[in-house]
Amino acid sequence: MWLERLTGRAVDLITLADAKDKLRIISPEGEDPELDAEISRAIAAASAALDVDRDGFGGLGFPLVSQTWVRKGACFDDQFLCLPFARIRSVEALSYQTEAGSVETIPAERYALVGRGRLRQLVAVGGYSWPSVADRPDAVSLEFTAGFASVAEVPEDLKAAARELVKFYYDQPLADAAKGVPEQVQRGVDRLTLRYRAFAL
Fold first, then answer.
1. Half-sphere exposure of residue 123, counting CA atoms within 13 Å on the CB side?
2. Rounded to whole angstroms, how far apart are CA atoms 110 and 117?
3. H, E, C per residue of the chain
4. Cα separation, 159 vs 20, whole angstroms
5. Alpha-carbon separation of residue 184 from 148, 170, 180 (angstroms)
6. Across-strand partners of 71?
7. Closest CA to 170 of 31, 18, 8, 11
8. Residues 81-106: pLDDT tens digits?
9. What is the C-alpha to C-alpha distance for residues 7 and 25, in angstroms, rounded to an integer?
10. CA 174 to chain CA centroid, nearest Å
11. What is the dihedral sign for C-alpha 51, 53, 58, 63?
12. Which tens digits make up the pLDDT trace of 53-75?
């Protein structure tokens, strides 16, 4: 069972002007292109640190701004049908490969998306039973969209966490993965973001 991102990516959570305000830099956008580029790199690094990577790992544990993913698995078991992220916006398609080798899409009225704490799970409804599938690891595909609809809908405390990280990445442009984010900065980020994580049920 695995995930593939189909559309979307980590996007900047705050604007250049917002970051400059946090950094107490008063030069207007465009006055110093090199400075703007440096701050923009810090914004991108901070935003990516809070988002999941292309394999669905890291960050807060879910895509922040609307991304479409597909999950592939061998069968319709509970593990497969429990979606991997919080903030599921919609299920786009549920399909499978039959034992005869054809690909079939299950009509949306045959299943429902129900809550499990912050997570969501697909369940069959109306007496429908999940069909038999081909004997292969990618026999079933579940396409879904997760994340806030737009940057404008991202809550302010998540943007505040991004600002704290922007300050760190701007002040420490050579910070590397081995050194990581200092504990004091990480504690502040965690306080701002804890309630959004999937395990904070």
1. 9
2. 22
3. CEEEEEECCCCCCCCHHHHHHHHCCCCCCCCCHHHHHHHHHHHHHHHHHHCCCCCCCCCCCCCCECEEEEEEECCCCHHHHECCCCCEEEEEEEEEECCCCCEEECCHHHEEEEEECCEEEEEECCCCCCCCCCCCCCCEEEEEEECECCHHHCCHHHHHHHHHHHHHHHHCCCCCCCCCCCHHHHHHHHHHHHHHCCCCC
4. 14
5. 28, 16, 12
6. 3, 142
7. 18
8. 999 998 899 999 999 999 999 999 99
9. 35
10. 26
11. positive
12. 999 999 999 999 999 999 999 99
Q: Closest by alpha carbon to 110, among 97, 89, 91?
A: 91
pTM for the complete prediction?
0.88
Q: What are phi and psi of 122, to 5 degrees?
A: -90, 135
As given in the structure block, the two tokens for residue 21 are 């305000």
